[in-house]
């Protein structure tokens, strides 16, 4: 039997298509490159070379088929490879954390822009993988960053990412249900959060990759999706220095509701930003001096 990388890719693409994977060809290629520990350039050079008998029965081919099986079960690609790029940094991910999305880069980029040349004390709530906190500390050079999450498993992932990207003891990681582990004299200049914001009723309509394999705790915003924004708006002011700001990632249709919550809680200078796709993605407010 003669087998080439191109044939393996074609077989993998067909298998993922039959499993209902939307970007079957792209995912099959990622898995093939991962299994053979190669890159696209070398794949293109080698794609029509006939594999030796030893290679056909070797570890790389077995790994490719194993990962195809997992992806066919709609397990997210990033959980299979254990890696996700965010803000140009490589983050470890698993089933205990929300996979970082490009949309969230809008949130990080705005804080980096607003606080360029400054050194604010930052609190990242619902930190998950730690992608926001770690990116801010790494790219902004901010020296005082605290990251909190209600999930101990998620915090373990965030700590791993913090140590891998920044080194030890660069960020303080705390187990906390929003502000529950904080004293009211612990004040910050910036509070940032990408909280759960999907209404419970909408959860059932999500893609299987998200609905069945990413943590419900990081997705479900309860009945109307605004539960955590109500808490953040009401409680954040107790943990902000005068003139401090809160930055919140939001769902595409939540700008007006979240802006109103911040206004009613006494925040001023309410601003919002769209993501790269032109969808409302971030809302910010400032605590009056």
UniProtKB/TrEMBL annotation:
Domain Release factor glutamine methyltransferase N-terminal: 7-82
Chain positions recorded as S-adenosyl-L-methionine binding sites: 149, 194
RNA-binding found in the keyword field: no
Entry-linked InterPro entries: DNA_methylase_N6_adenine_CS, HemK-like, N5-glutamine_MTase, PrmC_N, RF_methyltr_PrmC, SAM-dependent_MTases_sf, Small_mtfrase_dom
Pfam families from the UniProt entry: MTS (PF05175), PrmC_N (PF17827)
Gene3D superfamilies on file: DNA helicase RuvA subunit, C-terminal domain, Vaccinia Virus protein VP39
GO molecular function, one term: nucleic acid binding
Keyword Zinc-finger attributed: no
PROSITE patterns xrefs: N6_MTASE
Residues bound to substrate: 194-197
Domain of life where this protein originates: Bacteria
NCBIfam families named among the record's database cross-references: hemK_fam (TIGR00536), RF_mod_PrmC (TIGR03534)
HAMAP family hit by this protein: RF_methyltr_PrmC
Family: Belongs to the protein N5-glutamine methyltransferase family. PrmC subfamily.
Protein name according to UniProt: Release factor glutamine methyltransferase
